[in-house]
Design a protein that fits this description.
This protein is mainly α. The protein is built from five helices and five strands.
């Protein structure tokens, strides 16, 4: 009789444990996995549940949140894309007319200086608009890479020498360290690689310009092509380095 009671209790425990696993643990595990996907950027992901309890209501709430975040992300991307396209038209006019005015020898020195500032800032704003368009294309999966075998050394040197003459006007010396090594061609999108080089050089000029010097070099380490761009500005305090990828984080330095 005692054995029968024991077996009966054991069977009840097994049944309740099985029910607990199927109705609570497994749904919670699925919700956790889907929530992690949403947190990592997979907006619009939906959680499927076949129960009508608190777990199901939690899943429905997360589903609604996922849909709303996805809609907001799409609206934001559409807005940025539309705004970028709209900005290009007036910027083209500003760039064109400022170039025309710069060719006018009748302007006095102060006016010429002002027109040069307008031209420089208009070009910078145009570059920012192009970056915004690239960013929205990247988010939407519409950014296409045209990969081909590329002389990466030639691309890097051209970018450095082109940007170097621009930095000279700002009083910053860009030094290119030529290691005279045989750098093989690599598969890449040359236009995007030039964009990467320019972005890093521009960043070095903006935030390391106080050092009045930037050093650039290309080297080979085993089978890797290594590009180095170093500025001599104030740098980032060591304790703030873990926070450099945090959005909108402002460090202790003014620059």
């Amino acid at each position: 009789l005692a054995l029968a009671v024991f077996l009966g209790i054991l069977a009840i425990l097994l049944l309740t444990s099985s029910y607990f696993i199927r109705s609570i643990l497994l749904p919670v595990d699925e919700i956790t996995q889907k929530a992690r996907k949403i947190a990592s950027g997979s907006y619009g992901v939906q959680i499927q549940t076949k129960y009508n309890d608190e777990i199901a209501r939690l899943a429905e709430t997360i589903n609604e949140m996922s849909v709303k975040i996805n809609q907001n992300e799409k609206m934001q991307a559409d807005f940025i894309s539309s705004l970028s396209h709209e900005l290009r038209t007036p910027l083209t006019a500003i760039n064109g007319w400022s170039e025309t005015l710069l060719g006018n020898d009748a302007l006095d020195a102060e006016t010429m200086r002002g027109v040069k500032i307008i031209s420089k800032e208009a070009r910078r704003l145009t570059d920012m608009v192009v970056e915004l368009l690239d960013f929205t294309r990247l988010q939407d999966g519409r950014l296409t890479l045209h990969v081909e075998q590329t002389d990466i050394r030639a691309e890097f040197e051209d970018t450095v020498f082109m940007y170097g003459s621009r930095l000279t006007q700002e009083g910053i010396r860009l030094e290119y360290e030529d290691h005279d090594l045989d750098i093989p061609e690599i598969p890449c999108d040359p236009e995007r690689m030039r964009q990467v080089f320019l972005n890093i050089l521009d960043n070095a000029a903006k935030h390391g310009g106080e050092g009045k010097r930037i050093k650039a070099s290309m080297d080979m380490t085993q089978d890797m092509v290594v590009v180095r761009i170093r500025d001599y500005g104030p740098g980032i305090p060591e304790e703030e380095l873990p926070l450099v990828k945090k959005k909108f984080y402002k460090g202790s330095s003014k620059v």
